[in-house]
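Sample A.
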Amino acid sequence: MTAGTKEKTFDEHIEDYLNNIIKLPDFFALLPDETKREYELYIGDIIKKDKGIDEKAIEILTDKKYSEDILYSAFYCLCIYYRRYKEYRKYSELLTKYRSLFYEHPTFDYLESMFEQEFGDIRKAIDLSLSAIGKVNDNAGILHSHAIILAEAFEDNKLDIRTNPQELDNAIIAVKKAIRLTNNYPKFYCTLGRLQAIKGDFENAKKSIYQAIDMEKPERLDYSLVIADYQRHITRIEFIRNFKSLDEYKERLEKDLTDIKEKTEKRFSDINETINGYMTRNLEFLGFFTALISFTIGSIQIAASNYENAARLIITLCGGLLLALGGFGIILNGRKGISRTLLVITLGIIMLVLAILFPTVLQMFGLTEF
């Protein structure tokens, strides 16, 4: 370059290529290092302006006279082209065919992760994007790619936030770093908003997406489509927030119903216990008065007979009555009031023993028959 000659910008290099001043291999040779964000942006820009670039890139890729950097640029260009126009079969075949040749390039995992994201294994896509970040950690596009892969995985329920909270946090960290590196790219803010919504931070999620809307340039040919996509994400956030509120209300209602059920069951249990207590006491009273009536009638019938025999029979009847009441108490109450029941049974046994020993007792006290 001669003194005083101004170095051309990349937009000018693109114009030179479109005007056939330079050929595609020459354009690829002018690209910055593949790890730079501008590398992908320039290739993406030329793809948008030259719809037939895929055939030219294939010609370069199959011609071994070019350096590996130019060959890889052609490969990279085709990957972006196939992804942009959703030709995933060709994308897959390209990766398979040239993996052994280019797999050591730091951005190869990035290209493969984008294919897996769209048409493959989401877990593999996440792992490949992490590998790409490990090799190139200051490329906003690669950082954003990792974040958006996880955003879509969570939104499509391919990952559960309850079992993968750390991956969500890492995705937010990645997209925030991408924004720090390139803060003029609206889509980064939209992705941040989507991740914030997944985390449950709905207010900041909407703010991030509205910021993306404000940053978009109305002169874009696809401006209305892009804005509609952003609005779709805002609508989705509102839906998720309302659904979550409804779900939380449902949980509270279920908890309240469970508490009411437990209190009602306890109340019924207390009422049943009280009723059973009343029934038991009534049966005890009924048994007692039945035995008392039997005892009274028996005593009257015995009273006219021999005094000693009458007394022994009355004592025996009384002891039997006490034993019967004790047994009846055990049947009705179980272990409840066991001390009282044992006292009644003990008194019954004493009365029966007294009846057996009654003649001896009479002799001890010098009593004779009447």
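Sample B.
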Amino acid sequence: MFWDTFENSRRVLVIPNYTFGEDYNKDSFVDVLSSQIKALGDDYFWIIPVITPVKKFNLPNIEQKVCNISGNMIWMRSIFPEDIIKLLKGEKYDVIYSHLTDWHISRYTKKPIIGYSHWWELKESNGLSWLNRSRNLIHEVGNVLDYKVCYTNTYEQKKAVIENASEFYNEDTLNKLDQIIQVMHLGIDKNNITKEPSLDYDKTIVFNHRTNSYKGWDRFIKWMEKYRETRQDFKVWAPLLNKPNEWSWVDTTQYEKESYYKRLSQSCVGVTPKQDHMGWSVSSTDSMMCGLPVLFQEQDCYKEIMSDGLTFKNQRELFKLLDEMLDNRDFRMEWSKKGLEGAERLTDVNEENIEKLNNYLTLKVW
């Protein structure tokens, strides 16, 4: 078989975390993992459980295993699929790369586990409801204590995990958790960065995040409704709107990746509201590398993306900055260039991340 070519490669079993059921090829987990696999090269062979075959995983050193995994985010975290247990117990592999801390992996294997988690069930981000009557954090932390390392998105997120865990665990356990959880900012491929800001742009305000409440969509659209009362010479582009479009001035057109980047570069400004889970924002770094200025609502995790970025505290400050972006071409171009400079600073992060992963996957730091 084709994977015989990789018989001497280190075999990695991936524990997946699919969260975008509308199109798994656009899932952030798939994006991050596929780029890491390409960068790590042929020294590794990857076994990846999938709900349905994923185009981005059609690589020579990947074997996709179709498994019965729930596409519902809450159910997925709560139900450990029998298909995954069978892989853990029966598949040949050297190390596990887990993107889902909710499953008790070490119960079924003695192989070393490294992890990456962009989502933790924190009181700040996981409200209790009829769908989710309790948080899974106590189990997530308990499982991570068996990992060699678990990367997370931001320092603010790591701090929140440890503070939330202090309700259940003693100081010694929290100190161990602090050692295991390490921060891995998501970098930018330098080949994707626009050389110069586009001189040809229209008055479009971009919301290129998922249109969920934890991403700030509800707040954003209310701001835009209010802003329309003061001026109507702009439109909003929300390509990931997954609910009925009630607004004639909201464009929901979706594009393939290259056209999506071009559309970003030809818009006026992006808005990134505060996010409850305190994670990284790939959609914001997408904007930055395309020369689209981004307005960040004040939050510590966004300072980790662009320490000198444009921020706002409230609606009044947001509207003032939007007016400046829409009306002052020099101001918009200045911040377009600063965004590109911020994107350039994140290119080194990619190389650092790959070195970290390589060291753990090959046991160099264990």
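B remarks: The two ends are 33 Å apart (CA to CA). DSSP finds 13 helices and 13 strands in the chain.
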